[in-house]
Design brief:
Tetracycline Repressor, domain 2; elongated; single chain; Arc Repressor Mutant, subunit A
Length: 195
């Protein structure tokens, strides 16, 4: 679908990101490219390449935007009691509303996030929220924190089951809430207590 209004002066990178997300939602990841994105915005591919060096650079920027939105949703939900459950439900709801973006965010680019500083920072913010949601508020990284990894595994797994259609979207959030309410995360050993 061609843009109904050609791009005129303004924030071209933001317009390209919005167009890439629209393509992602409509046709999936394989359809997103710099040329198609530029065409949707109404500019030349050369103009798009001035802002994004490659398709992966564009996709990493879209994924970073998604992680920032996910972090904001989790932070907004994580007020009061049951921090982990509420943040987990926000994570699941985000995946349910943004299946194409969710798949992109947790796809192959995430493994290469060190190449993309904005993606690295945005994904680490989500990891930090997951760490904050578990009972042991020590400073271990996500990889070293079994309780946080278990919580993320449950939330992320439920999100994928919803996005992939294994859990009906109409009941996904209520089912996820029931499941999360039943989870009891292991407490880390107290280093001050005798063994």
């Amino acid at each position: 679908m061609q843009s109904t209004r050609p791009y005129r002066h303004g924030n071209l990178p933001a317009a390209l990101l919005a167009a890439a997300r629209q393509i992602l939602d409509e046709n999936g990841l394989q359809s997103v490219g710099l040329r198609e994105t530029a065409r949707r915005v109404g500019v030349s591919a050369t103009a798009a390449y001035r802002h994004f060096a490659s398709k992966d650079d564009l996709l990493a920027s879209v994924a970073a935007e998604g992680f920032r939105e996910l972090a904001a949703a989790m932070e907004g939900a994580a007020r009061g009691a049951n921090l982990l459950t509420r943040a987990g439900l926000a994570y699941i709801e985000f995946a349910n509303r943004n299946p194409g973006l969710f798949r992109l965010m947790f796809g192959p680019l995430l493994a290469e996030r060190a190449k993309y500083p904005a993606l690295q920072a945005a994904s680490l913010r989500v990891e930090g929220l997951l760490l904050r949601g578990v009972a042991d508020l020590d400073q271990r990284t996500l990889d070293d924190n079994l309780a946080a990894m278990a919580a993320w595994g449950v939330v992320h797994g439920l999100s994928h089951l919803i996005v992939d259609g294994f859990l009906p979207a109409s009941r996904a959030v209520s089912q996820a809430e029931e499941i999360l309410a039943k989870i009891r995360l292991p407490r880390p050993p107290n280093p001050e207590s005798p063994r």
